[in-house]
């Protein structure tokens, strides 16, 4: 199988829109939209390649950039090793210098375009937050539980997993979802009776056990799907299933499960390096660990009491 090394750039305009380009008919995957960029040449560094490609394709001069993410994608006849760069500063206004169609698009409208497969994982990585709060799994609707929930949705939290070890009343969940919407927070359901058809949520989170018996993605692509995993094989299975992100745990020792041997930072990083989709670290995490987690390439941290 042929291996292709490629680089692409992420450009924003003053309105926060992102630039995408349409592949021309004569190209592989013609008609699909992607980030601008192209293949690296022999003995060319990735930074040199993306600088050259964006000059050739968009007629811009890159002044400052940094690596956002690296990923691998397998097609039937080829493997693409892709490096995605944030273009922090550049000169000139981008144009379709090679005759290709380009468009500035709101991030939340990118799903309306016919995107290359690698684009979905990238979109998740730039739209998901670096903190994922998991609610206590019992005593829902008590004053203590509700006070904690109401406090979280007004803090620096924009993604919540509603976790319950027993069925919850749909009216109660709908009320929580309405509160979340009012505060621009996404709510994912991790309940024992989830059907993946609930309208009063922004997606679902599946347990490892649920993930292992599924043979295909259980929900629509316009909803979020997270999965709990405990090793690399499970994480790869979740990615193959179509999960938008995974939570890997326990990274460090926890008081709640003192008998469980933690994965450690090196094993957690291996999961990040081998997956294309975002990875959250769970287990013994605190805000003090967030910076280290992000430097390892993870999406961020998850927890009940981590923040």
Secondary structure layout:
Blueprint: E1 2-10, E2 18-22, E3 33-34, E4 37-39, H1 46-58, E5 61-74, E6 78-91, E7 102-105, H2 117-127, E8 131-134, H3 143-152, E9 159-163, H4 170-182, E10 186-190, E11 203-206, H5 208-213, E12 224-229, H6 232-241, E13 245-248, H7 265-274, E14 279-282, H8 290-295, E15 300-303
Parallel strand pairs: 1-6, 8-9, 8-15, 9-10, 10-11, 11-12, 12-13, 13-14, 14-15
Antiparallel strand pairs: 1-4, 2-3, 2-7, 5-6
Task: Walk me through this protein's architecture.
The protein is α/β, with parallel strands linked by helices and 307 residues long. It is built from 8 helices and 15 strands.
Shape: globular
Secondary structure: number of strands? 15
Lateral arrangement of strands in the main beta sheet: 8-9-10-11-12-13-14-15
- CATH level 3 topology of the largest domain: TIM Barrel
Query: Regarding CATH, which class of the largest domain?
Result: Alpha Beta
N-C termini distance:
45 Å
Helix content: 25-40%
- The number of domains is 2
Q: What is the N-to-C order of secondary-structure elements (H for helix, E for strand)?
A: EEEEHEEEHEHEHEEHEHEHEHE
Q: Give the amount of beta strand, in percent.
A: 25-35%
Q: Provide the structure class.
A: alpha/beta
Average pLDDT: 92
């Amino acid at each position: 199988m042929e291996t292709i090394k490629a680089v692409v750039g992420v450009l924003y305009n003053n309105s926060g829109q992102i630039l995408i380009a349409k592949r021309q008919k004569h190209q592989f995957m013609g008609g699909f939209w992607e980030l601008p960029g192209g293949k690296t040449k022999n003995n060319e560094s990735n930074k040199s390649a993306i600088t050259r490609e964006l000059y050739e394709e968009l007629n811009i001069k890159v002044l400052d950039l940094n690596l956002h993410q690296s990923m691998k994608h397998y097609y039937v006849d080829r493997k693409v090793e892709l490096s995605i760069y944030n273009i922090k500063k550049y000169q000139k206004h981008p144009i379709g210098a090679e005759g290709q169609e380009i468009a500035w698009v709101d991030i939340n409208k990118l799903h309306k375009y016919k995107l290359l497969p690698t684009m979905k994982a990238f979109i998740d990585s730039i739209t998901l937050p670096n903190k994922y709060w998991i609610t206590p799994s019992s005593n829902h609707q008590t004053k203590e539980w509700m006070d904690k929930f109401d406090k979280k949705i007004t803090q620096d939290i924009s993604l919540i997993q509603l976790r319950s070890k027993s069925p919850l009343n749909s009216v109660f969940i709908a009320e929580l979802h309405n509160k979340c919407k009012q505060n621009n927070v996404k709510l994912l359901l991790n309940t024992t009776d989830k059907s993946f058809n609930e309208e009063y949520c922004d997606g679902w989170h599946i347990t490892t056990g649920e993930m292992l018996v599924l043979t295909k993605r259980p929900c629509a692509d316009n909803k979020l799907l997270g999965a709990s995993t405990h090793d690399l094989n499970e994480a790869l299975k979740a990615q193959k299933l179509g999960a938008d992100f995974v939570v890997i745990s326990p990274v460090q020792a926890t008081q709640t499960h003192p008998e469980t041997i933690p994965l450690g930072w090196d094993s957690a990083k291996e999961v990040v390096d081998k997956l294309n989709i975002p990875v959250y670290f769970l287990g013994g995490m605190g805000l003090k660990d967030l910076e280290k987690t992000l430097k390892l390439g993870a999406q961020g941290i998850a927890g009940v009491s981590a923040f």
